[in-house]
Amino acid sequence: MADRGASAPSLPDDWPAHPEHPILALNRMGTFDWDLDTGLFHMDAQAYEVFDLTPEEFDGRPEGLALRVPPLESSRLDAVVSQAIKDGSENYGTYFRIRRRDGGPRWTHTQGYIRRDATGRPRRVVGIVRDATKELEDSEARSLRDAQGQALRRQTDVVQVITAALAHARSVQDVIDALKDAHGIPNLGATSLVMGLVEAGRIRLVAEGPVGSFVPGTRITRVEEPYPMGEVVQTLSPRFIESPDEFAERYPILWPHITGLHITSAAYLPLIAQARPIGAMGLLYNDRLGFSSEERAVLVAIGSSIAQSLQRAMLYEQEKDLAQGLQQAMLPRTIPSVRGADVAVRYRSASAGGSLGRDIGGDWYDLIPLPGGRVGAVIGDVQGHDTHAAAVMGQLRIVLRAYAAEGHTPATVMARASVFLDELDTDRFATCLYAEADLATGVVQVVRAGHIDPLVRAADGSCRRIPVEGGLPLGLSAEFDSLDYPVSTLELDPGETMLLCTDGLVEQPGTDLGVGIRALTEQVEQGPEDVRGLADRLIAVAEERGGDDDVALLLLRRRGPDTAQAVGRLQQHVASGDPEALALARHMIRAAVRAWGAGDRADEIELITNALMHTEGSAIVTLRVLTGSDRRLRVEVEDSSSALPRRRDAGEDGVSGRGLLLVDQIADAWGVEARGGGKAVWCEFRMPQKPDGD
Description:
It contains 18 helices and 27 strands. With about 700 residues, it is of the alpha+beta class. A six-stranded antiparallel β-sheet has the order 8-7-6-11-10-9, with helices on both faces. Strands 13, 14, 15, 16, 19 and 20 form a six-stranded mixed β-sheet that branches. The radius of gyration is 42 Å and the shape is elongated. Residues about 1-10, about 350-355, about 560-565 and about 650-655 have low confidence and may be disordered.
């Protein structure tokens, strides 16, 4: 063989790699270590014996083997090694002949392992040599062994393919489908498959073989009944039926029902997981008699893989049912009907590609009826995908609903919810968006805690993203006073739809959030006008795309102007010393007045309301339309003070009470009413009559 070495200053520290080894010698195997840099070729004592050489006859170089390896064999062996090195292979193996000391031939087999450095350059070849004369003497026997080996390898390949397919099964049906696939059981030559699961001492059939092969009365059978699946479940041992006569003799009740299938043999296997039977499987054949020992071993191995996959699938289904049940229990059981709006909500759990127990998340939606015909819409997402996230979500949803129902402003609702989550002493945070809508006026106040912005679809079908200034996600601060959740205001016109969702609806692998939101905007524009149909369409797209995150979705569509005007009521809580709340209240009042057809008096009404809201404490402002012989808009400002206001003339000292002068001059009627522990100052403005048919 040609010398592949190159000069090097020294040999590797661990050279030679294989000193004399008693186990190898016992099996008549010699070892060698060929350093490619120095060209040195080390052999142990058994290798010298294989080559029929003595240490004195060999100079430690590959060329020295020419004494025993003929030139043609040396060239062929050299070509095998060179090709392996060129191809980047890790090993090679081949048979070659040597010439013994007495001149007779000897077949020899060598197998070498190529060691490379970090750059991929070959440095050493370490391997074994052995006398292969005896194994190659009988060519016919060798061919038979080769054929048997090929058959066994094919069966082993089938086991590997089936096992790989079963690794992705997430349900019992997935397991059955994988087995019936063209790469599954048919590769073993089986005509059909039957399978049953053990449930409370009974076997429930889940796969029944070819169409029309169902045997009456076998859908559910007791384990002790004289059927093959019951037998293997009881004995925990496989049953191989090698002929039709044996089948008819062993199972006389079953055989008459399957004679039309022309079964010639069958293999029934217990499906055992964690030392207990979880089911049984039968493979039916119509073109063979009997099973070799190798085939039986392969089938038993397949049965073991199927049992493990079935157990995993059954556990996954149980976990998924539990997760979905818990998720549904945490979400609102029903969504209240909202006068003046059409509402649709949807929830989609994460795809089944995650691990067990991960199909549950912290996404939620809620719709909260509020006084004065208003409604609060909530969308949120607690960090994580497990039962803990769902439990935190359930608590957070309840307290947020409670804070909103107490009449707090949207900013206060969000801040209190954040403090609550922090005080839960959990490691989770949550993103949330809370929108408080007055459907009479279309005014919507929105606060955002680290969540994605809402979308609004116009009546003409166009869709736009509504940028909302946001604050920190919930649960990241325990200081109520330090939490700042700015309130943004938008107007929802009749026929417009507001869309709130969690990021699972917009996030796409490999793209940023902006791309996902633009894609969602296009989907909304192309979707149906009906909110339920649109919700179904968006969830269907999410299902097709898949993903590891769950999705919560809430759509709220404000109905037409007639319905909205019929509501005719607006109520807003204004905290003491809160200029932001005052500004929002004035904005809502102006929008309401325009919506109710009194736009020509909007400035007057806003001025009077502003004067009345300057109370010493917090106040509740209520606007509503009164109908009768004429239409009037009534403004009420209610506070907790029992002291009745009095009108003051301009010459008196002080400025308190001057607002009533404006009320008296501008309003068509006004008055003061005692309300329990407080009072309400009211005033009314005449409004034009609605045109006929409105």
